Amino acid sequence: MSPRSARLARLSRSVTFSACHRLHSKSLSDEENLKLFGKCNNPNGHGHNYKVTVTVRGEIDPVSGMVMNLTDLKEYMQEAIMEPLDHKNLDKDVPYFAEVVSTTENVAVFIWENLQRLLPPGILYKVKVHETDQNVVVYKGEE
Q1: Structural domain tally of the chain?
Q2: For this structure, is 32 an active site residue?
Q3: Which one from 75, 79, 83, 87 is the annotated catalytic residue?
Q4: Active site located where (predicted)?
Q5: Which of 20, 24, 40, 59 is catalytic?
Q6: Is 24 annotated in the active site?
Q7: Tell me, what CATH number does 133's domain have?
């Protein structure tokens, strides 16, 4: 096999978690919240089955043939996503959302920040969160 320059690849893995939340900003009045968030401002909240796809990128290791071991990525996602979010009330059970509105955009940021603490530096490329089949957020950090 002839020597080649480094080969870059992106590797993705998905998980699904269930959680409930209420879209409500403490900076707005009850009337303003209802106008902005509509039925998603229901005081009793509502739930979703979120699908999250995490993409990492890097050089393909010439020995292992991998950008990253999928078993390791699975464990990082378990710790960063499933443990803090699955079957939780985001607003009441996750301290991050005590002061941050639990929109899908902010869920994506929360997941990114948790993964950044666990993954090797520079490898995290993208977090994609499907709140529904129609509503999707992609977050790539502070580009």
Answers
A1: 1
A2: no
A3: 87
A4: 40, 87, 131
A5: 40
A6: no
A7: 3.30.479.10
